[in-house]
Amino acid sequence: MAVKVRITPFERSIKLLIDGRLSPKERSQRVAAFARKEIAAVDEQNRRALGTVPPKTVTVDGRAGAPLESINPDRGTIVAEWSLVGDVLQWIFATLRARSPRLKGGYIKGHTLFADGAECSADNPPLASEYTFLNMVPYSRKIEIGKTKSGRDFVIQVPNRIYERTADDAKARFGNIAKIRFTYQAAVGGRIASKNRDDRVPAIVVTLR
Fold it and tell me: Are 134 and 184 members of one domain?
């Protein structure tokens, strides 16, 4: 999942910059200058929204990493593609771990990512239409909202509602590029299970807009 910007010499905004009397090389340079400006603008937009510039791939006439000036001035295409989902997922994963109790370490190790319902690595997630974080330990629901017999929160080492707070904060930070929601889900055998199961635990679901 990524954001793409496609630039071709036939776009009206570029045509206005290109004098038909220019040589092919000069026309390619004009298109490249326009593309460079547009790519820099998207980089800055991402920097403001995310606090960083996500990695991108620029393809010129189907050649990844080729010089912008090498574009065919009449029929060429420049495509810039920014990978955004990794930044969102890594932020959520790091925040869940940072907010986890560390008394025994089981909960902090239990945060698990699923891509389209299948368990995957949070460090290198595959492309998917939907991502889900949940915690695999059986007491994760208690840590989220549980109370003791005396009425106090089940966990006192850190504030509770870890998943709910992280989902709200992620939504505030990345809401312009991703749909993020807090819910309850269950997993069995490395896959997200039926939503009607009684063993559902707190979860964060992420889809890019």
Answer: yes
